[in-house]
Amino acid sequence: MQNKVLIANRGEIAVRIIRACKELGIPCVAIYSKADQDSLHVKFADDAICVGEAKNSDSYLNMNNIISAAIASGCNAIHPGYGFLSENMKFVQIVERCNLKFIGPSSEAISQLGNKLMAKEMAKQAKIPVIEGSDGALENVKQGLNICGKIGYPVLIKAVNGGGGKGIFLVNNEFEFAKAFETASMEAQANFGDKSLYVEKYIESPHHIEVQILGDSAGNIVYLGERDCSAQRRNQKLIEESPSPFVNEVLRRTLGNASVRLAKLVKYEGAGTVEFMVDKQGNYYFLEMNPRIQVEHPVTEFVTGIDIVKEQLKIAFGQNLSFKQNDIKIKGHSIECRINAEDPLNNFCPCPGEIKNLVMPGGNGVRIDSHIYSSYVIPPYYDSLLAKLIVFGNTRKEAIKKMRCALEEFVMDGIKNNVEFLYIIMHNSDFVKGTYDTNLIKKILDYNENQKMIKIINENKG
Question: Cα separation of 287 and 210, whole Å?
């Protein structure tokens, strides 16, 4: 039987997977909601099937419609991309029962890692330090308050099955807890179909470091260096780079080996990312493991020369890794900026609408992953990510300069976006020196920095 892949996602990641499939000669089928009928992934795939109305619950989270689309189109595999059903154990179990290949880890591995509390227990077994917090899901506000009283504030309330920075709330004292608990529960239910929450101690001003791994069915597992994801807004990553300017060679090997231990413990197969919080002293703590492709995977592809999505497909269809850990070499430096339809001066509020004019940058070492085009209408139902701008340089300094030039060339009229804000970050002294942490964007947006930013934006417009 010829391999054929259904892509159970939308936007830039769907386009990215389509390209990998085509390069490997694998036919692919896209799914789409009625709101996405004019999206590029629908046009690029060999075939496309509408799976429902605009709302996620009616389309991209509609398991029955997606499975039916796969079977009806003759697909024998499903690639979930990131978000939506990519970490949903129930969906993976259904895929497996229908004798379809889920391009990712097994339902058993996802049950151990997709659930953040179970993942912490697995990390303990792998002898990886974890952040202090609740041992299980919180039953009610009172239980959460009792735990917070023991570990001390500030704390983070998190969705047990969360991801993508959603379902996370910072709580500074007991008076904020009840309201944050209620809001987090509703957000978790809306985004992940599970309102379960847990709490953990908040590490102030940490570095968010993640390690990319690949594992095959023969038990071979390698790590592909690390990415620094500390530049975040609203707990969501905005800029990523590899290698991290904060991580030295000893810490790199330590985090890499820890990630491989965890992956081997659950017999991990496919692409995955182990995330850590690292404090100023270099102490590291397991945060979570994402059993899927990450938004920021291109920076790792640039510095290693390995096509991670192609490796996902090869592994899924029975091929073993063609390289070992000693073969992995990190060369140069890569930075990714997420281009979003949002207003940085209004708490990054999403700004859907029609793109009137679009000019994307190019040149040596510049890559764009996107699904947009001039006259494309951004629907209001989904994430605000429009494109990923990725650059590669021989050094970090060269990569920053290249990103500045690329952002200067990026033109997108008709909607508010964060291109100018990203350009400002590329000139921020903490970022340029590589000394920034997860408070970078918060500092930039304080009153004084805010006024500077507005002035720079207005000067650029003038």
Answer: 9
Contacts of 436 by beta carbon, 8 Å cutoff, 6+ apart: 230, 231, 428, 430
Give the dihedral of Cα atoms 271, 28, 341, 226; nearest 10 deg: 20
Domain of 445, in residue numbers:
207-461
pLDDT of residue 217: 96
Q: How confident is the model at residue 114 (pLDDT cuts 50, 70, 90)?
A: confident
State whether 95 and 146 are in the same domain.
no
The CATH number assigned to the domain holding 78 equals 3.40.50.20
In the three-class reduction of DSSP (H, G, I as helix; E, B as strand; rest coil), residue 333 is classed as strand
Burial (CB count <10 Å: 0-12, 13-18, 19+), residue 458: exposed
Q: What is the CATH number of the domain that holds 194?
A: 3.30.1490.20
Clarify whether residues 267 and 186 are in a common domain.
Answer: no
| Cα–Cα distances in angstroms (integers) from residue 242 to residues 95, 101, 192, 200, in the given order | 34, 31, 29, 27
**What does the alpha-carbon distance between residue 66 and residue 285 come to, in Å, rounded to a whole number?**
37
Q: Within its chain, how far is the Cα of 216 from the centroid? A: 22
**Alpha helices in 28-162, H assignment, sequence order:** 40-44, 63-72, 89-97, 107-113, 116-125, 141-151
Nearest alpha carbon to residue 360 among 404, 398, 393, 408: 408
Residue 334: which region, alpha, beta or left (left: phi > 0; alpha: psi -120 to 50)? beta
The pLDDT of residue 141 is above 90: yes
Amino acid at 401: K
Rounded to the nearest 10 degrees, the angle between the axes of helix 249-265 and helix 116-125 is 110
Which element (helix H / strand E) includes 400? helix 396-409
What tens digit of pLDDT does each residue of 322-357 get?
999 999 999 999 999 999 999 998 989 999 999 999
**CA triple 160-280-447, angle to 5 deg:** 85
Query: Distance between CA atoms of 106 and 292, rounded to whole angstroms?
Result: 11
Q: What's the domain count of the chain?
A: 3
Alpha-carbon span 147 to 145, nearest angstrom:
5
pLDDT digits (tens, 9 = 90+) for 36-68: 999 999 999 999 999 999 999 999 999 999 999
Cβ–Cβ under 8 Å, residues 76 and 3 = yes
CA nearest to 138, candidates 157, 119, 151: 157
97 noted as active-site residue: no
Q: Which residue, 201, 232, 261, sits at the end of a domain?
A: 201
Q: Which of 292, 338, 367, 404 is catalytic?
A: 292
Final residue in a domain of this structure, among 152, 168, 201: 201
Number of CB atoms found within 10 A of residue 144's CB: 23
